[in-house]
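Slide 14.
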Amino acid sequence: MYIALIIFAQFLYSLSDVWKKVAMAGKPFNVALLGNLGFLGANVLPIIPHIFFVYALSRYPLSRATITLGVSAVFFSSLFGWYFFKEQVSGLNMIGYSFAVLAIVMINWK
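Slide 15: predicted structure.
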């Protein structure tokens, strides 16, 4: 259950990063951007996964949690880059993603 919370937290972290990129598209960072509801929402969203992650950290080994968070960050960032921004994914990338998922499974194997 804690691993699912950690992975879901990273999913929301990565989703908020995509949201920030879309909300800021072509806009310079300035005070007016702070009034943009899309930008504000994208910066408030990470509060929710942070709560999930802190809860999971209080009940799950730190060494497993941080590795799971880091590997899932690479996975979700690549997935969102491919889906939302049409980035190219090669066969070698797919093999790497498979190893990343395998790493999460193996680290959390009991």
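Speaker note: The chain has five helices and no strands.
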